[in-house]
Amino acid sequence: MINAASAPGRLYVLDTSVLIHDPTALFRFQEHGICLPMAVLTELDAAKQGHSDIARSARQASRFLDGLLSGTDRAALAAGVPLVDTDPGATGRLWFHNADDRPGDSGILASADQLTRELRHTQVTLVSKDVNLRVRALASGLRAEDYRSDRVTEDLDLLQSGIDTLPDAVWTARRETLLENGQEGVRIPLPEGTHWFPGQCLHHDESGFEGIVRQAEPGACWVEPVQDFRGDGGPWGVRARNQEQNFALNLLMDPEIDFVSLLGPAGTGKTLLTLAAGLEQTLELKRFVEIVMTRATIALGEDIGYLPGSEEEKMTPWMGALADNLEVLGQPESGGDWGRAATADLVQSRIKLRSLAFMRGRTFVRRLLILDEAQNLTSKQMKALITRAGPGTKVVCMGNLGQIDTPYLTESSSGLSWAVQRLRDWPHSGHITLQRGERSRLADFANEAL
After folding, report:
1. 175 part of a folded domain
2. Which of 189, 291, 301, 427 has the fewest CB atoms within 10 Å, i.e. is most exposed?
3. Are 143 and 126 in contact (CB under 8 A)?
4. Nearest CA among 421, 380, 416 for reference residue 395
């Protein structure tokens, strides 16, 4: 039990979902107190079996707790276990509470309710990733909130689109010169309050200029003009249909860019552009040996092992978008049926489907690694996949933050948002948010009207 005299000003009661989502949440509340109901410990024990991400997180949280409690006596438990001994960023204390024998969410709510009534001078708040549990708590008159320490940004609108407009005054003050790589470049002064980063796409509509920031310096940046893929000669015969797609193709085709993230709703061309650029660099330019494509298998709700066949055969039902786009990319304008069949076989022979379950420990050399539906990945999964890249490998993450299917993940805590923010200032990364649909007039209208 917590002594009211020694209770902190704020006490956060953590739900099991928080520790499953982020085992380090124990150290994310700075100087404030943390309380774990006994029902949480029971649920952690039940979840630790197996090889899933949930089981791994449960075991990691249990290891943290074991380290905190090592050598702790009963008196120290009553006073609260100091968290600073494990993490210098956390200066609060950890308590445990047992309200009654009720299991699961009922026991967690009972602990939060009893602590709220007993500690009248302490603000008790239930923290949970479970929306229904938060609703039940609020309906019972308790304080409840989502776990926010893992959020990239509180407002998703602050996530940059990767494209910005050059003001007329800034464009007038430009100075053209040659960059170190021999390409023509433009030195553009930074407007006040603006932060442009390497890989940022800039355009000036009146002059028609489009470029990518290559170097940044105090008060200015060096911008290199992009190649126009809206005419003939696009990668693998694919033309950019708008400015966003043209910027995306330039990032995808750039050998100096190792990481590209493409956000956008269905029909904006993420998969088609990526595959076209990949095939061009694999079969024509010989930059890559093959294309490796994977995605999170979320929608079915079953493990990949329930499907018959090899790893690639099991992944095939999840790759409908790949098959649809290969039908377009594998159809040459000339050559007849034999030519089309030969092209389709050649294309498919250079594309490998891989499961996330077998990615740990692998290293991809001179591959184009495509992560589809990346919005369903956690930050840990995203890090594990990006670090699979070996020499000469390019990683492309595609997704739509409006279609997250993973439990407890939100737009702001998705691994895709996390990667975009963390890699933003790295000179070998690029990001584009595609907003204009190009699938069909019916799809465009449906996106707006439905």
Report:
1. yes
2. 301
3. yes
4. 416
